[in-house]
Amino acid sequence: MSTPTSDVLIIGGGVAGLTLALEVADQRSVTLVRPAQDDQGASRWAQGGIAAVLSPDDDLEAHINDTLIAGDGLCDVEAVRFTVTHGPAAIQWLIDQGVPFTPETDPAARYPYHLTREGGHNARRIIHADDATGRAVVDTLLDSVAQHPNITQRNDLTVVGLLQDVHGTCHGAYGNDTNQQWHSLTARHTVLATGGASGLYRHTTTPAPSSGEGMMMAAELGARLMNLEFQQFHPTCLFDPEGPAFLISEAVRGEGGHLLNEAGERFMLALDKRAELAPRDVVARAIDAEIQRSSLGHVWLDIRHLGEKAIHHHFPTIQAHCASRGIDITQQAIPVVPAAHYSCGGVATNLQGATNVANLYAIGETACTGLHGANRMASNSLLECLVFARSCAQALLADAEQNGLTTSSSEFQPPTPAAAATFPKAVLSDIRQQMRTTMSQHVSIVRSTTGLSTALEHLKTLLNSVEEIQGALKAPEGKRLHQTLQLALLTVIAAQQRHESRGLHYSTDWPHQRPQAIASALSINDLTDALEKNR
């Protein structure tokens, strides 16, 4: 096991991880663990854009208020205000980095880049790069990262755990390379930017979503997890059971797209005065209800009335992708279904990304900052990545100045997992699919007490199955699946404990809200207690 040392170890290479790397690398050495499959992660597939107060016709208080409303009473007001007020500077940083945002063509406009509007926003404040904003941002930042002499990229490692000394301080991580060799990566500061947990579900909006492994790595060291029950389902994912996942951006509705039921009628008008621009939890539940009443298995998203020129101008990526799947969106409505999209819960952090474990930080979707509350508002996700990555960078630089940069590997013994025994990987794949089916059936858009209990028992059985496979927990695939099942169980426990319906958590047994909104908090001990019951 090799033990290279750097000042900052970043695990995950989406917008949050790349931004942090660039913000600290001028002064500190950085190791960025970014497996090749990260190219399929959520950041690259973000289409709509980034929300920020950029136009002179908009204001910070309006963005704050919209975010608080979408969060359904559970947002941390300080985190919301912090994020929104730092948003314009974060966008300017991206512009300075060279991100090719779509320019505004209207000479009367008061901001040089085109701004669109999405669900929950009462103003046009979404800056974007056509309909492929995530890809544009990631590609631009990756180019800068590749050229920076202080950033070492490790694309050959799968990180499966974190290193901790006898004092409880995090000192890095360990993982397995493509040759099945184990490595430890020690660092003064370790930052998780590993994404969310949409991969717990069968239908998702990205081809290779994270399944919360980073969250559980933090929990294994004692980090608190918050609000795991609030999993956002994007209302409009392309319905194609035979093809890969593909998101149909919120911006499609923002520019005037209509949702139609099986009879070809708009149904959102009767449910919410904001119609198709209602918050995502409202729209997703409405679509789910229509699907249950129909035989199609989906609803329609219609933008034909916008005209071919406008469709091609605003949505070239969506138009091209749908065409490759045999759908001409200028002539046909798009079949769509809700799909797991974003985890509002995660590793609890402060405004600098610090967890309750010394020297361990979390940023991006893997973190729970309090910004999103019970429901994330459209395009606040990339904003959170940028703002908290930049804030975390300042904290890391300040801490290094105050406490020095030495990292002593003599203080702890890194784990040395043995070589895994031979076992059929198809078995692990089958267990993962069973988990996703269980989560999609019982722990998704609409939940019930009976369904959650059924899910808990089934997930316990699957966890036991992994633990009983000889050598599974000493192989990367087995270890990560074990972490994923643990997070699925904690998600169910969090949902069981919330005796109300709020935001993304809707229970048929508890359809009303409690007067006081309370965030949920869980630890690895809660999972241990649940597993001990009924044994």
From TrEMBL:
Localisation per UniProt entry: Cytoplasm
Coiled coil: none
Domain called Fumarate reductase/succinate dehydrogenase flavoprotein-like C-terminal: residue spans: 432-513
Taxonomy of the source species: Bacteria, Pseudomonadati, Pseudomonadota, Gammaproteobacteria, Oceanospirillales
Function, as annotated: Catalyzes the oxidation of L-aspartate to iminoaspartate.
Organism of derivation: Vreelandella glaciei
EC top class named in words: oxidoreductase
GO biological process: 'de novo' NAD+ biosynthetic process from L-aspartate
Pfam family membership, one: FAD_binding_2
Catalytic residues of the enzyme: 280
InterPro entries: FAD-dep_OxRdtase_2_FAD-bd, FAD/NAD-bd_sf, Fum_R/Succ_DH_flav-like_C_sf, Fum_Rdtase/Succ_DH_flav-like_C, NadB, Succ_DH/fumarate_Rdtase_cat_sf
Every FAD-dependent oxidoreductase 2 FAD-binding domain range: 7-382
Superkingdom as given in the UniProt entry: Bacteria
Keywords in alphabetical order: FAD, Flavoprotein, Oxidoreductase, Pyridine nucleotide biosynthesis
Needed co-factor(s): FAD
Family membership: Belongs to the FAD-dependent oxidoreductase 2 family. NadB subfamily.
Primary location group: cytoplasm
Protein name per its UniProtKB record: L-aspartate oxidase
Swiss-Prot/TrEMBL catalytic activity: L-aspartate + O2 = iminosuccinate + H2O2
Catalytic activity, EC: 1.4.3.16
Metabolic or biological pathway, per its Swiss-Prot or TrEMBL entry: Cofactor biosynthesis; NAD(+) biosynthesis; iminoaspartate from L-aspartate (oxidase route): step 1/1
UniProt-recorded Gene Ontology molecular function terms: L-aspartate oxidase activity
GO CC, alphabetical: cytoplasm
